[in-house]
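Task card 7
Instruction: Convert sequence to structure tokens.
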Amino acid sequence: MDIELGIQIIKNVAQENGYQLTSGESSFEIFKNTLRPKSLKIKKINDDLLIYQWEDEKEDYSTNSVYSLRTLNDVIKFCNILSISTEIRSGRNRV
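Output:
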């Protein structure tokens, strides 16, 4: 996989869906400032992108990664999760 392309795709899709990003080339975080913040850390390890998750401002990466992206197809699927989860969460505020 072209890992740099995968990172750029994730960053672009995250920004288009209203996520904030921390700086970093091979390790960065994406998050939304919401009532219950959900943050993701993307970390490049060898030829994989590992995704870690935590909620409620509790930064804890001691657990195993939630996703391991090994192909551009995996990156696209992960980006779908980012955009769909945004729609689901924002829809709950319209009640």
